[in-house]
Model the fold of this input.
Amino acid sequence: EAGVAQSPRYKIIEKRQSVAFWCNPISGHATLYWYQQILGQGPKLLIQFQNNGVVDDSQLPKDRFSAERLKGVDSTLKIQPAKLEDSAVYLCASSPPGLPVDTQYFGPGTRLTVL
Amino acid sequence: SQELEQSPQSLIVQEGKNLTINCTSSKTLYGLYWYKQKYGEGLIFLMMLQKGGEEKSHEKITAKLDEKKQQSSLHITASQPSHAGIYLCGADAVSGSARQLTFGSGTQLTVLP
Done:
């Protein structure tokens, strides 16, 4: 079974530039998550999708971050414009449907450096 | 909101030694997940615990959830260099209709050959 795919793996940009990350979840996984992991910290949830609808985006800085999940499969996360504090690893995860327990499977992440 | 505190923040052990990592929650844990992360890579799922007193093992790694369901421990027996990495605990939190994970800040494990 193929895992969660993310691209690019690394990205270096200057502040005020724009950047986009792509995620392809495991086939059949309805829920998709984007996390931000700053060096030395645990991942922090930015946004959660159920199919192509947003379930929770309460921690997404909406003035500069946006995300979409077209057709309930792939997802993109965009930052416009980037700030120095956005330097982090951006992780995408997906989980299969079903309650009460679900387990999240993570992609390799995109390491963003903002200069 | 739920907060998870991991201890120690970092750990350096000699190969072959046993070690324990702790994860303490500010609220009752309904689901506790342990993940491992290597530098530059994503998180790898290790184990999930749900019931108070539950214990699970995989190879040389054992995780326990205490009876009161506010603390979990991860124990590695006879550590090897392949065990090196960052260990993260994640708590199953419910926010409205969403099921989410809140993570601790991680424990950096170094195993010296």
The longest strand of chain B covers residues 85-95. Residues 81 and 111 of chain B are 5 Å apart (CA to CA). The mean pLDDT of chain B is 90.
